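Hi R.,

Here's the chain you asked about this morning:
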Amino acid sequence: MKHRSRINKEKIKICLEPGQTVQHALSNADIHIRADCGGKGVCGKCQVKIEDQGALSSLSDAEKRFLSNGHIQEGVRLSCQVKLKENSQAAHEISLSLIEKTYESVQSESSKTKIQVMVRPQATISRSVISPSGFSSSLTDCFNLSPAGANGSGSYFSLEVLHRLSRYFAAEKELTVVQRGGLASTILPGSRRRSLGIAVDLGTTTIAAYLCDLPSGKILAACSKANSQRIHGYDVISRIEFASKAESGLKKLQIEAIHDINELINQSLRETEQCIDDIDDVCVVGNPTMQSIFAGISPLSIGRAPYLPVTNEPIDISNHSLGLCVRKDVNIHLFPMPSAFVGGDAIAAATATGITTSGESLLVVDLGTNGELILISGQGVVATSAATGPAFEGYSISCGVRAVPGAVSKITWNARKNEFDYEIIPGNPEKRAIGLCGSAIIDAVAECRKINLIQPNGRITPDVSGLIEEDSGRAIAFKGMAKDGSEVDLKLTQKDVRQIQLAKAALRVGIDALLETTGLDAIQKTIFTGAFGAGLNWENACSIGMVPKPILQGKIETIHNAAGVGAVNALLNRTYRDQARNFAKTVRCIKLESLPEFSSIFAQASELNAS
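And here is the predicted structure, written out as tokens:
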């Protein structure tokens, strides 16, 4: 069998086809290793250790650049570079070990992410139990089932309803009819009054899902996982390029998104012991690229001038054409998106935070691989998108990881002890730090800047203690014991610092552009959302110029996942969908790249100084 895989502890055997990279073979075997650059050979993260390399290609220039002599002697290769030798005519089985851990599996969010949704449930879905009422001229009459949307003329039954009614009538004394907006969409056997919904935040890096009880509005379960599409590149531009190569590229990305969401749906159902047939509604939010790919719409127009989404309107799709693991008649609702880079997730976050009804100047910053900012004031609603990249989420950083158990979440300089103090996200049984998550990376840069380990221009200061000299350049060592007794042995390279400078400069330019457009010199309230934003030390962020001082002078709130809250709101209450659509129409979007002297503004914003 092609691409058959067998995992035995840390050893993996895969069947490698001629012309295929090890990374693609692993992906086809549903083993997703870290590949921040999407297989372009410029990140060096997709390392594997291969036992017998006799049938494999020689070292590429990228491998020679990223791998030390010691690594090469141990059999370490970059999976995106290594293939069978060019003259190979047949498949070959190889045995390897993963250097980096595979993407984290589905994680329950219940213990660490408790979102509170204060809405009055008013779903468009309703269920009612019907019983036969005696002999009549048809089965629909027997079960007192009115035509869908009966209003005198033009009323009809959906074919799904008739199919199921014919299938169940002889075996069931009672049937449950599921209605959407007065239309009977399906019939289920027996008395099934529980009605569930799924809200999904389809992020470029992380996907989160929330299982909700529609009548009560209660969140029954929440879980998340890393987006499997990351093997094709960490940002939306990489996804657009992959989707645009051929029709198969778009289809592959769509299948991966659907597979990930299905995994989350099944996980939440297992946790709560619920039935998949009781899911009646799905709501999905994401940036324009992710929403388009999920719907099977080419994102090509988003990545090319004049950079426009196919539609700004919300989209409702029957699952008949998508393939989620829920019933085929279930409707999937996608949020409106004001522009090519300000998407449904930003609108969902805005409606969740009350930005649409607030009387004060209010800024919502959704920090992820693509930072989205919305500012409302007396001057109207303006928004922009900042290409922050994945650094804030731990990717593109040599020791960066997601905010998972074992990740360092906080770093402070202890002047009395002349060393760094560390805090680690609990739950890792190995009692060692596995890397720095986004909040700790900002702490690391800010604290090192305070003690002059890093200069204002971002250059690591030479000839000071605490440095590591490597072939690739200088690095700052973070060693010691965390407060929980875990061992810390990590480093921050010069390249890592440059990545943070680029990311924080993009965010800063975006915030400054909104302030200048509205003429505001202060903001009364700022809400930061996203897993990174919720855990960040904003004093440190200000000290390196990531956010302007006017932000800290107002009120600051953090919400772990406001986009997820907005998706849940819209799932539970129809008025929130209408509110999101109306609000999206009022948003004026700013393209940062079109600003006068953008290059010089960006260069200035990359300096690591408070301003």
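One quick note: The first helix runs from residue 22 to 28.

Cheers,
M.
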